[in-house]
């Protein structure tokens, strides 16, 4: 079966979710492009956008229209060539509008899983719950009318486990996009021991066509991305618990969040990142990892406690940030949650009390956004972290300890064979998490 | 062509800011002045220097595509909106793509020569930031032959036509040196614009303009042989100038030293449906310049400054050759030697040109006349040059489309 034939009938499960809708967008455009490249009209192709939420599905076409339009405006040069045979499409505007119609037109939103039975490619992007994934994929497998392949967007569940439980015979591969899929460059590609080579070839080609950076990960729970992120977050929680005795809980959250963002020049503080991903998602991932990685304590009772109080983070349907560890105003952290008072305490008050305790960051500090655009980034970071290491403040001490821990986690991933080498770990953090530098570095030695 | 039989002057020029990317006050998400605001600002700027609209006999407005950029036609009727005293006076709108401004100036000159007017208010305007660049490219493509060229054409239609000219030039005369000349052209344009506060690149603070301009072209997202720095930007702007007879100057109370005299012009039209015979030559511009110099009775060696139509760096380079200051294939060396810079022998585009000052397409020809007027009458402020006594003349070349509609004018500061 050719690449384009494989893409002629696709199902995305969990299509209205934040990952699923992005996967629908990218896949629908790739389907339209593949067909335009072969014989012109993308009619006859179909992408079944399957989701349990009718309400969320109702917004999918509107989301797609906006996003495909943006993408089409950027690739108008190629689109004019692709539609060269259409005499009725003369102006860019006409070509772009037709492309939006062609892409959106091949997406069929549905709440019926039966729609996926005839698909040749099933993209799974439902909640990070192994039993749910197994149940849905098993139903498709039991009823499928023909040969089909599964790309799963799981960020933590071992692929061989899904393969065995669904009895797919190797017709599954891990294809882990980062959030949001349309923007983030990284894809973690995870082969199960039995994954058929043709599927691997397809996945590599598909990622290449999407212009993604592919990092292979060994099929171990959490893979590279969450293998680092979860341990990094657990370390932050442990630091909060250690500091809370002296400074108080909200103060400790504030300090660790500030150090992990500002002092370490990361795009977000660690608790902002946990909120962005969602506490519920983090809990699911931690459960998957802790059940499969015996001998390592991978639990966060604090996250469970917050979730029990209804503090979950994640995003609203319009993409804005829900409150979690932190409260957000216009997308920016504004307060820290105090579980004893069950209320948020405003940041300025905490900062006023604790910034002096932390001490100022190194004098040559630059914001993360400036650093990632700096062509002389490496030299700057060396000088910056040298200055940080020489400082005798609490903030500098926390930052250095944090940087060392982050490195140790990365090295652990290499030593355990999850990542093929330090470069892969660093690439994941640089491209999937937008860090300014990889965790495996010499800055904190 | 016959020589001018009556003295014609231009005076009281006014250019608005050229608004678009690069200007600090430009925000594509916020409301901006509209077409009528620009017309009013430029028109009132000129009227304020000539004693008001009561002194005006006639109005001419140059514009390319307001019908699409702004959904507005019948622009002649926006001239009376500048000032009540202009109501009921004869007004005309002219269109010749990016050469509209030049056509408007010539239309005004002809009214003065015909003695049907002594004072003509000439305005040029284009407000283009109403659409994204990719859709603006559709609108601007109207300067080419729609039914014969558009379908096969590139998404960025005009950049692509000039990219093809650049490609042909690379092939014939070498790529590396030519691209370095493009980069120098860009640098000169921005350095001049930094001195002129209405210029779109006035705020440009890039420390190494030539390195930036040498960015490799990316055919996947743009065109084969040009990058974005080789192109003039999307601009909103207007310019106005009074075209007057000797009696008109007297009526407005303007001394001749505060005016420039039009000594001759060349107005040349090529066939829109015919491709250029030689893509490395701007033949129509060449003919217009020759006609203008001949009608003015001026030698090329007496030209002290040139306003050329550098909608792209390649059109700037080809203009240098079309004017005749450099031979065919010698434009790159001429530019790289610094001859076109403001320290050079014949400075080009002293307020930044289309790449530096901005390119409000249908208004550019009028803006060029305003620049010449400012430069020759000592009103150029920070970008003032010393005009050499032995080379007191200025030449402007305004081009519409791919070298199809061209107007060249020869000026000198007004003398008794």
Features:
heterodimer; A: 445 residues; alpha/beta; Rossmann fold; 2 domains; 12% strand; B: alpha/beta; Peroxisomal Thiolase, Chain A, domain 1; 9-stranded mixed beta sheet; 17% strand
Summary?
The complex is a heterodimer of chains A (445) and B (416). By secondary structure, chain A is α/β, with parallel strands linked by helices.
Structural description of this entry:
The complex is a heterodimer of chains A (445) and B (416). Chain A is of the alpha/beta class and 445 residues long. In chain A, 52% of the residues lie in helices and 12% in strands. Chain A has an eight-stranded mixed β-sheet, sandwiched between helices. In chain A, strands 9-10-11 form a three-stranded antiparallel β-sheet. The longest helix of chain A has 23 residues, at 225-247. Chain B folds into two domains: 8-132 and 234-258, Peroxisomal Thiolase, Chain A, domain 1 (3-Layer(aba) Sandwich); 153-231 and 263-413, 3-Layer(aba) Sandwich (Peroxisomal Thiolase, Chain A, domain 1), CATH 3.40.47.10. Chain B has 416 residues and is an alpha/beta fold. In chain B, helix 3 (100-113) crosses helix 14, helix 6 (157-173) packs across helix 7 (175-193) and helix 10 crosses helix 11. The two termini of chain B are 26 Å apart. The chains are: A alpha/beta (445), B alpha/beta (416). Chain A binds chain B through residues 73-80, 84, 87, 90-93, 95-96, and chain B through 132, 134-135, 137-138, 141, 146, 150-152, 154-156, 219-222.
Report the mean per-residue pLDDT of chain A as an integer: 95
Number of strands of chain B: 9
Helical element count of chain A? 19
Which outline of chain B best applies? Answer: globular
Mean pLDDT of chain B: 97
Based on the coordinates given, report the CATH architecture of the largest domain in chain B: 3-Layer(aba) Sandwich
Please bin the fraction of helical residues of chain B.
25-40%
The coarse overall form of chain A would be: globular
Helix content of chain A: 40-55%
Oligomer: heterodimer
What is the total domain count of chain B? Answer: 2
Report the CATH C-level class of the largest domain in chain A.
Answer: Alpha Beta
How many E-type strands of chain A?
11
Low-confidence stretches of chain B: none
Could you say which structural class the secondary elements and strand pairing of chain B correspond to?
Answer: alpha/beta
Strand content of chain A: 5-15%
Note the main sheet of chain A. Answer: 8 strands, mixed
Largest interface: A-B, 16 and 17 residues
């Amino acid at each position: 079966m050719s690449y384009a034939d494989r893409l002629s009938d696709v199902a995305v499960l969990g299509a209205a979710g934040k990952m699923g809708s992005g996967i629908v967008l990218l896949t629908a455009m790739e389907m339209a492009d593949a067909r335009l490249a072969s014989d012109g009209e993308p009619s006859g192709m179909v992408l079944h956008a399957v989701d349990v939420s009718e309400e969320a599905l109702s917004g999918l076409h509107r989301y797609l229209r906006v996003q495909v339009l943006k993408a089409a405006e950027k690739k108008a040069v190629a689109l004019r060539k692709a539609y060269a045979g259409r005499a009725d499409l003369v102006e860019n505007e006409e070509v772009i509008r037709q492309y939006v119609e062609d892409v959106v037109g091949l997406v069929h939103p549905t709440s019926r899983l039966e729609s996926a039975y005839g698909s040749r490619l099933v993209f799974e992007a439902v909640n990070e719950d192994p039993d749910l994934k197994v149940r849905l994929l098993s139903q498709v497998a039991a009823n499928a009318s023909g040969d089909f392949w599964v790309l799963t967007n799981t960020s933590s569940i071992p692929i061989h486990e899904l393969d065995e439980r669904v009895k797919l015979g190797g017709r599954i591969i891990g294809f882990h996009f980062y959030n949001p899929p349309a923007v983030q460059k990284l894809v973690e590609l995870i082969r199960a021991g039995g994954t058929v080579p043709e599927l691997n070839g397809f996945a590599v080609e598909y990622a290449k066509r999407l212009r993604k950076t592919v990092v292979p990960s060994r099929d171990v729970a959490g893979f590279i991305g969450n293998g680092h992120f979860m341990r990094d977050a657990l370390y932050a929680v442990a630091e909060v618990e250690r500091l809370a005795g002296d400074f108080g809980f909200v103060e400790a959250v504030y300090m660790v969040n500030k150090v992990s963002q500002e002092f370490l020049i990361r795009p977000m503080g660690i608790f902002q990142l946990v909120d962005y991903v969602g506490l519920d998602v983090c809990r699911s991932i931690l459960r998957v990892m802790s059940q499969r990685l015996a001998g390592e304590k991978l639990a966060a009772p604090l996250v469970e406690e917050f979730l029990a109080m209804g503090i979950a983070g994640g995003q609203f349907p319009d993409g804005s940030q829900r409150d979690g560890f932190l409260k957000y105003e216009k997308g920016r952290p504004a307060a820290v949650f105090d579980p004893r008072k069950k209320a948020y305490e405003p940041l300025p008050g905490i900062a006023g009390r604790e910034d002096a305790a932390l001490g100022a960051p190194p004098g040559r500090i630059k914001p993360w956004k400036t650093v990632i655009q700096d062509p002389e980034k490496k030299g700057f970071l060396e000088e910056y972290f040298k200055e940080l290491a020489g400082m005798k403040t609490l903030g500098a001490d926390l930052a250095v300890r944090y940087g060392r821990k982050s490195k140790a986690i990365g090295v652990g991933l290499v030593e355990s064979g999850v990542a093929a080498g330090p470069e892969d770990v660093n690439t994941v953090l640089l491209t999937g998490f937008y860090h300014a530098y990889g965790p495996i570095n010499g800055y904190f030695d | 062509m016959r020589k001018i039989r009556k003295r014609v002057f231009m005076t009281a020029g006014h250019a608005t800011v050229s608004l678009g990317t690069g200007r600090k006050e430009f925000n594509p998400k916020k409301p901006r002045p509209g077409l009528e605001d620009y017309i009013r600002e430029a028109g009132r700027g000129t009227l304020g220097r000539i004693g008001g609209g009561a002194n005006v006999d006639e109005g001419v407005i140059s514009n390319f595509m307001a019908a699409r950029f702004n959904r507005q036609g019948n622009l002649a009727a926006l001239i009376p909106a500048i000032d009540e005293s202009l109501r009921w006076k004869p007004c005309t709108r002219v269109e010749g793509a990016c050469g509209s401004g030049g056509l408007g100036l010539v239309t005004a000159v002809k009214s003065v020569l015909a003695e049907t007017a002594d004072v003509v208010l000439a305005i040029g305007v284009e407000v283009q930031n109403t659409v994204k660049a990719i859709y603006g490219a559709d609108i601007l493509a109207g300067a080419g032959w729609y039914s014969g060229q558009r379908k096969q054409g590139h998404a960025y239609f005009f950049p692509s036509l000039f990219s093809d000219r650049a490609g042909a030039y690379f092939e014939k005369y070498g790529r590396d040196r030519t691209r370095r000349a493009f980069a120098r052209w860009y640098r000169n344009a921005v350095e001049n614009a930094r001195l002129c506060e209405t210029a779109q690149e006035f705020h440009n603070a890039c420390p190494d303009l030539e390195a930036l301009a040498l960015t490799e072209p990316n055919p996947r997202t743009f065109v084969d042989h040009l990058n974005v720095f080789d192109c003039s930007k999307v601009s909103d702007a207007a310019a106005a100038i009074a075209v007057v007879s000797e009696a008109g100057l007297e009526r407005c109370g303007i001394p001749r030293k505060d005016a420039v005299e039009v000594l001759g012009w060349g107005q040349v039209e090529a066939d829109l449906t015919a491709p250029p015979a030689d893509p490395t030559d701007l033949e129509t511009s060449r003919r217009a310049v020759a006609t203008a110099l001949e009608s003015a009775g001026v030698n090329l060696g007496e030209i002290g400054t040139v306003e050329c139509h550098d909608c792209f760096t390649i059109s700037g380079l080809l203009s240098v050759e079309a004017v005749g200051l450099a031979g065919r294939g010698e434009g790159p060396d001429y530019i790289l030697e610094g001859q076109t810079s403001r320290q050079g022998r014949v400075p080009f585009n002293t307020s930044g040109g289309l790449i530096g000052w901005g390119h409000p397409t249908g208004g550019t020809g009028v803006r060029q006349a305003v620049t010449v007027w400012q430069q020759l009458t000592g009103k150029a402020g920070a970008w003032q040059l010393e005009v050499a006594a032995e080379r007191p003349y200025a030449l402007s070349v305004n081009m519409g489309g791919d070298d199809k509609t061209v107007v060249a004018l020869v000026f000198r500061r007004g003398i008794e």
